[in-house]
Specification:
The structure holds two protein chains of two kinds.
Chain A: H1 2-16, E1 25-35, E2 38-49, E3 54-64, E4 71-85, E5 88-100, E6 104-115, E7 120-130, E8 133-142, E9 145-156, H2 164-167, H3 170-177, E10 179-194, E11 197-214, E12 219-235, E13 238-254, E14 257-260, E15 266-275, E16 280-290, E17 294-303, E18 306-314, E19 317-318, H4 319-331, E20 339-352, E21 355-369, E22 374-386, E23 392-398, E24 400-403, E25 406-408, E26 411-418, E27 421-424, E28 428-432, E29 435-446, E30 452-464, H5 465-471, E31 479-491, E32 494-505, E33 508-518, E34 526-537, H6 538-544, E35 553-564, E36 567-576, E37 586-588, H7 589-598, H8 605-608, E38 616-629, E39 632-636, E40 639-641, E41 644-650, E42 660-662, E43 666-668, H9 669-677
Antiparallel strand pairs in A: 1-2, 2-3, 3-4, 4-5, 5-6, 6-7, 7-8, 8-9, 9-10, 10-11, 11-12, 12-13, 13-14, 13-15, 15-16, 16-17, 17-18, 18-20, 19-20, 20-21, 21-22, 22-23, 22-24, 23-26, 24-25, 26-27, 27-29, 28-29, 29-30, 30-31, 31-32, 32-33, 33-34, 34-35, 35-36, 36-38, 37-38, 38-39, 38-41, 39-43, ...
Chain B: H1 2-23, H2 28-43, H3 70-79, H4 82-86, H5 95-117, E1 120-122, E2 128-130, H6 141-165, H7 172-186, E3 192-195, E4 198-201
Antiparallel strand pairs in B: 1-2, 3-4
C-alpha cells in the first residue's frame, strides 16, 4: 500500500504544482506534455482569480504514470480555492476524477499543501474506491522523509487479485492461485520512510467473513474473523517486528485439526526480526493461547526456507480438553483413538536441525480406553525422550492400571532416553492381580519407520488362580500361575513370550508355552499357544465344575491353539486318563450322563435303567479329543468303537461296567460349547 | 523288492507333489460367494449382488505349475476326484467374523450418506477413503476420518481372519482382492470407486 500511496502523492503534487501565473485568467493547453517521467496527453490548465484566491482546473485526456501504476484517463483536477502564503501553495478542498484500468472510475476529494523551496508537501485523499471498499490516504513529504496514513474499510479480498502482480512474484502468485479465498479487510496503516526506503510500519487490520480453502480442501476456514496488529521498524537492514493476532469466530480445519474459534478463541502475540530480503526470520517469543485448551510460548529461527531450530514450552494443559482437539485426530485408527483423559500435562520441546529433546511433565493423568482394553490412573512424573546422544531421565508412577481384565497395581519406573530409545534404569515390579510381574532390562526402541519395538526379561511371581479365574470370569479355580519368562519381546505388532507359564491347578501341572500375541490392542487380537497338561486330579476337577464325580488322573494337551479376540477358534486338543498309573478309576452316574451329552447323546437314560441303582462305575479309561478348525470340532475319544469312539471305556474294577460312545465325529463348536455349558437332551449311554 | 521300494518311493513322492498342488489353489468362486454374503449383510439387501464376469478372477496358482509333473496330476486326479478339489469352501461363520460384520453393519448406517454424496469412495484394494473432502462439513471431517479409519481397520481384520479361519493365512491378499472387486460390484448406483488410480462413479 505504501507504494500506491507514494506514487499517487507524487503524481498529484506534480499536477497541482504546475506553474501558473495569472492576472485574471490563464489558460494553458498542450497536446503532449512531459514532466519528470509523467506524460499528459491533451493537457489543459486553467487558473482564475477569485475573491479569496485562485481557482484551479486541470484536465488531461490521459496521464501516463511511471510503472507499475499504468495510465489514468479522463483526469480532472479542480480546486476552488488555491492559496499561496509564505511560499506555500495550499488547497483545502479539491476534487479529482479519473479512470484507471484497475481502479475504475474514481471521484476523490483532496486537500494538500506544497512548499517547493522547503520540499514540504502534504496531501489528503478521501473517497478512493478500491475493491468495493472505501479508502482514505494522508501523505506527508518533507525533504525525502515521508509518511503515509492509509485507511481502508471493507475491502473485498477477491477484488484485490488484480493488484497482486504489483506485490508478489510469479511463483508466489502461482501458490496463491491454488487457494480460493473470500472475505473483507479493513485496515489502518501508517508507513513512513525516507526516499525509497521504508523505515516504519504500523498496521491494524480486521478480516471479516474470511473463508479460504486449498484445492484438496485439507486447509480450510469458514467465516473467520481475525484482528491483528503489526509494528515493524527497520534497523540495520532488519525489520524488528511485534505482532498479535486474535480470532474468536468461525471455524478452521488444517488436516487433521479442527478449530472452533467461537468455542475456543485463539490469540497469538510475539516479536522478532526478519531480514530485509525476508530470508531469515527470528521469532523471539511467541505467546499462543487457545482458550481453555492450550497455551504456551514458542521461539524459532527460520533461514532460507527452512526451520533451523525451535523451542516450545506449554503451560500445564488440561488433557480432557487437549485430547479431542490436538491428540485424537492423529490417533484415528490406533489403539489410542478412543480415550477419555483427565489430568494435566506440560510439554517442552527443544528442536535443533532435526535433533530434539522432548519433556512431558504429567500431573494426575488418568486415561481410559472407551473400548475397555486398557486404563491407567493417577500417572505422575516426567517423561523425557530424545533422538540425541545426550541421555534424558524419566520418572513416572501410577496408582492403578488395567489391561483387558487384568488389574495391574501401583508401580513406577525410572528410565533413560537416548537415540530414539528408552531403557529402564531400575527393575519394575508390576503388581498383576495378587502376584507380580518383575520386569528387568526393559528396552524400547523407536525404529526409522515409526514402529516401536520393546523387550524385557521377566519373572511372574505366583498369581492365585482364584483371582485369575475371577478376573477372566471363569469358574472359580484353585491353584497358582507363575512363570519364568526369559524374554518378552514386541516387534511388528507381535508380542512373543519365550519360556513358559506354569499353572498349578487340580493337583497337576499345566504348562503354557510358545505364547504369541499379535496386535494385542488391535481390532482382533490373536493369541497363539501350546499347552500341555499333566497329572490333573479328575476328582478335584469334576467337583470344581460340578460335573458329577470322576476319580482318576487326567493328562493331555491343547496344541496349535489360536484365540481370535480371546475366543478359541483353532486347536488340536486331547484330554484323557494316562496310560500308566491307573489308580482308582470310578465314574459317577451323573458324570456318565454329562459325558454322554458332550458326545452328542441324550441324558437320563441311565437312571431310568436298572443301572440307576448304582451310584458309580469302574472304568478302564476315558478321554475326549477335539480338533477345532473353522468352527467345526472333529471329535474322537480313547479308542474306536463301532460307528463311533469311546469316551468312557468301562472295565478295571468290578462290573457293572459302562461305556460311553460318541457317534458324532463332526460337531459344531458352538453346539459343543452349548453342550458343555448346559446339559439338556440325552439318549443315554450304550450299556453293555 | 527293489521295484516295490522304487514304486512306493515314487508314488509317495508324487503324492507329496500332488498335495502341494491341491493346496495352493485359492477357491476364488467360493471366496466371491462368501464376500457377497458378507457385503449383503453389511450393506443391506438393497445393494444386490451383481454378477460381474470380469471381476471373477481365474483360479490362481501361486507356485508350482500344474505342468511341472503331468504324471503327478494324473495321480492326483486318480487319488482325489476333481470335484473334491473344486469343492473347497470358504467359511465365514465365526464369532470374530460375525462381530466384525455387525460392527461394520452398524457403522454403515453412518457411512452410507457419505458414499451417496461421493465424500467417501471405495478403493481398489478393498478399503475406503475420503475421496472428496469438500463434500464434508468442517465439523464432521474428523468424524468421517474416524469412521473411515475404523472401517479400514475392521476390513483388514476381516480379510486376515477369513484367511486364518480357513486355515490359510497366506490367502489374506487373495481374499482382499476378491473383496475389493465385490465391494465395487455390489456398490449402489452413484457411489464412487477407484479403478486404476482414477475415480469412477457407478
Amino acid at each position: 500500500m505504501a507504494r500506491i500511496a507514494t506514487g499517487a502523492l507524487v503524481c498529484l503534487i506534480l499536477l497541482w504544482l504546475t506553474p501558473a501565473q495569472a492576472i485574471d485568467k490563464i489558460h494553458i493547453q498542450s497536446d503532449n506534455w512531459l514532466y519528470q517521467g509523467f506524460a499528459a496527453g491533451q493537457f489543459e490548465l486553467g487558473v482564475s482569480l477569485t475573491a479569496s484566491g485562485l481557482q484551479l482546473d486541470a484536465t488531461a485526456r490521459q496521464l501516463d504514470l511511471p510503472a507499475p501504476w499504468g495510465q489514468l484517463e479522463q483526469v480532472h483536477l479542480h480546486c476552488d480555492e488555491l492559496r499561496l502564503a509564505a511560499a506555500t501553495w495550499q488547497c483545502d478542498k479539491g476534487q479529482l476524477q479519473f479512470t484507471h484500468p484497475r481502479l475504475g472510475p474514481q471521484q476523490l476529494g483532496f486537500a494538500g499543501q506544497a512548499n517547493a523551496d522547503r520540499q514540504q508537501y502534504q496531501l489528503e485523499l478521501t473517497g478512493l474506491k478500491l475493491a468495493q471498499g472505501q479508502m482514505q490516504l494522508k501523505a506527508d513529504y518533507q525533504a525525502e522523509a515521508w509518511t503515509v496514513d492509509l485507511t481502508a474499510r471493507d475491502t473485498v479480498l477477491a477484488a484485490l487479485n488484480q493488484w497482486l502482480p504489483l506485490f508478489l512474484s510469479e511463483s508466489q502468485r502461482a501458490l496463491l492461485a491454488e487457494w480460493d479465498y473470500q472475505g473483507k479487510v479493513s485496515l489502518n496503516a501508517n508507513v513512513s520512510g525516507r526516499a525509497s526506503q521504508l523505515a516504519e510500519l504500523t498496521l491494524d487490520w480486521q478480516l471479516d467473513a474470511l473463508s479460504f480453502s486449498n484445492q484438496s480442501a485439507t486447509q480450510i476456514a469458514e467465516d473467520l474473523s481475525v484482528t491483528g496488529q503489526l509494528d515493524a521498524r527497520m534497523k540495520q537492514n532488519q525489520w524488528q517486528w511485534q505482532a498479535n493476532l486474535k480470532s474468536d469466530s468461525g471455524q478452521a480445519y488444517s488436516e487433521p485439526i479442527f478449530l472452533d474459534l467461537m468455542q475456543h478463541p485463539v490469540s497469538l502475540s510475539g516479536k522478532g526480526e526478519i531480514s530485509a530480503d525476508f530470508d531469515a526470520l527470528r521469532v523471539v517469543e511467541l505467546q499462543f493461547d487457545q482458550q481453555s485448551v492450550l497455551s504456551g510460548n514458542l521461539s524459532l529461527n527460520w533461514q532460507q526456507g527452512g526451520l533451523t531450530d525451535f523451542k516450545l514450552a506449554s503451560e500445564a494443559i488440561d488433557l480432557s480438553k487437549l485430547y479431542p482437539v490436538w491428540l485424537q485426530p492423529f490417533a484415528l485408527g490406533t489403539a489410542a483413538a478412543k480415550m477419555q483423559l483427565e489430568g494435566q500435562a506440560a510439554v517442552n520441546i527443544d528442536w535443533q536441525q532435526g535433533d530434539y529433546q522432548l519433556q512431558l511433565a504429567v500431573d494426575e493423568l488418568s486415561l481410559k480406553d472407551e473400548t475397555e482394553k486398557f486404563s491407567l490412573q493417577n500417572l505422575n512424573g516426567k517423561l523425557a525422550w530424545t533422538n540425541t546422544d545426550n541421555a534424558m531421565s524419566s520418572k513416572l508412577n501410577w496408582s492403578r492400571a488395567k489391561l483387558y481384565a487384568l488389574d495391574l497395581g501401583a508401580a513406577g519406573i525410572a528410565a533413560e532416553s537416548r537415540n530414539n530409545g528408552l531403557t529402564l534404569t531400575e527393575g519394575l515390579d508390576l503388581p498383576v492381580l495378587d502376584g507380580s510381574l518383575q520386569v528387568n532390562a526393559f528396552e524400547l526402541q523407536r525404529k526409522a519407520d515409526g514402529h516401536v519395538d520393546w523387550q524385557f526379561d521377566g519373572l511372574l511371581t505366583p498369581i492365585s488362580m482364584e483371582s485369575l479365574s475371577a478376573a477372566l470370569e471363569w469358574p472359580p479355580l484353585h491353584g497358582k500361575l507363575s512363570g519364568i519368562i526369559p524374554r518378552v519381546s514386541y516387534s511388528g505388532q507381535q508380542l512373543t513370550i519365550d519360556g513358559a507359564l506354569q499353572m498349578k491347578i487340580f493337583d497337576g501341572t499345566t504348562v503354557i508355552r510358545d505364547l504369541r500375541l499379535t496386535s494385542p490392542l488391535g481390532r482382533l487380537p490373536q493369541l497363539y499357544a501350546n499347552i500341555d497338561i499333566s497329572d490333573l486330579d479328575l476328582g478335584l476337577l469334576t467337583r470344581t465344575f460340578d460335573f458329577g464325580l470322576i476319580s482318576g488322573r487326567l493328562e493331555g494337551y491343547v496344541h496349535g491353539l489360536r484365540l481370535s479376540n480371546w475366543r478359541p477358534v483353532q486347536f488340536d486338543a486331547r484330554l484323557q486318563t494316562p496310560e500308566d498309573n491307573p489308580g482308582k478309576r470310578r465314574i459317577s452316574q451323573r458324570a456318565v450322563d454329562n459325558l454322554t451329552e458332550i458326545g452328542g447323546g441324550a441324558s437320563g437314560m441311565l437312571s431310568r435303567s436298572f443301572l440307576g441303582f448304582f451310584e458309580d462305575f469302574s472304568y478302564q479309561k476315558l478321554g475326549l479329543a477335539c480338533r477345532l478348525q473353522n468352527e467345526m470340532c472333529l471329535m474322537s475319544g480313547v479308542g474306536e468303537a463301532e460307528q463311533g469312539y469311546y469316551i468312557v471305556k468301562g472295565g478295571g474294577g468290578l462290573p457293572p461296567w459302562i461305556n460311553v460312545i460318541g457317534y458324532t465325529q463332526r460337531v459344531d463348536w458352538a453346539d459343543l460349547i452349548a453342550r458343555l455349558l448346559a446339559v439338556r437332551d440325552s439318549s443315554g449311554p450304550v450299556i453293555e | 523288492m527293489k521295484l516295490l521300494k522304487w514304486l512306493t518311493g515314487s508314488v509317495s513322492g508324487l503324492m507329496l507333489v500332488s498335495c502341494v498342488t491341491i493346496n495352493i489353489y485359492f477357491p476364488a468362486a467360493a471366496a466371491e460367494k462368501a464376500a457377497d454374503r458378507i457385503i449383503e449383510d453389511v450393506w443391506g439387501p438393497e445393494t444386490q449382488p451383481q454378477s460381474d464376469p470380469e471381476a471373477t478372477p481365474e483360479p490362481q496358482e501361486s507356485s508350482a505349475s500344474p505342468s511341472a509333473s503331468g504324471l503327478a496330476l494324473q495321480v492326483l486326479d486318480w487319488l482325489v476326484p476333481q470335484a473334491a478339489a473344486a469343492e473347497a469352501n470358504i467359511n465365514i461363520n465365526s464369532p470374530a467374523i460375525n462381530a466384525l460384520k455387525s460392527a461394520m453393519k452398524s457403522r454403515h448406517n453412518q457411512l452410507e450418506a457419505f458414499y451417496n454424496s461421493g465424500a467417501v469412495g471405495l478403493t481398489d484394494d478393498g478399503l475406503i477413503t475420503v475421496r472428496d473432502a469438500k463434500a464434508i462439513g468442517l465439523k464432521d471431517r474428523n468424524k468421517v476420518n474416524g469412521l473411515v479409519a475404523e472401517e479400514n481397520k475392521d476390513r483388514k481384520a476381516l480379510y486376515a481372519e477369513i484367511a486364518r479361519a480357513n486355515g490359510h493365512p497366506e490367502w489374506e491378499n487373495d481374499i482382499r482382492d476378491t473383496f475389493a472387486k465385490r465391494w465395487i460390484s455390489n456398490a449402489a448406483k452413484g457411489w464412487w470407486y477407484q479403478q486404476g488410480g482414477s475415480w469412477k462413479q457407478k
